[in-house]
Amino acid sequence: MLNRIRAQLRMRSHRNQTLQADWDADGADAFEFVVLDLLPAPTEVGAYDPTDDLEVLLELWREKLGLPERTTY
Predict the structure, then answer these.
(1) The model scores a pTM over 0.90
(2) How many domains does the chain contain in total?
């Protein structure tokens, strides 16, 4: 996933226009990608859609970091 994001940024095709503009202006060396949190492994066998869990984690980290409300990406 991270390799895809970096490739999109290098090719100037990332869908988050704000991130792309910052990448273009500041360059790759200005960015650091780190894992902030992990979801626990699913306990049930079968399809697991982590979308809701990821949304909760996103909002928790935005709050912890004092970031404004989420905008559309």
Answers:
(1) no
(2) 1
Helices of type H across the chain = 2-10, 17-26, 51-65
Rg (CA), the chain: 15
pLDDT digits (tens, 9 = 90+) for 34-69: 988 998 888 777 788 889 999 999 999 999 999 887
58 belongs to a structural domain: yes
Report if residue 18 sits inside a domain.
Answer: yes
The two tokens of residue 5 are: 């994001």
Question: Could you list the residue range(s) of the whole structural domain that residue 21 is in?
Answer: 2-65
The owner of tokens 């792309």 is 20
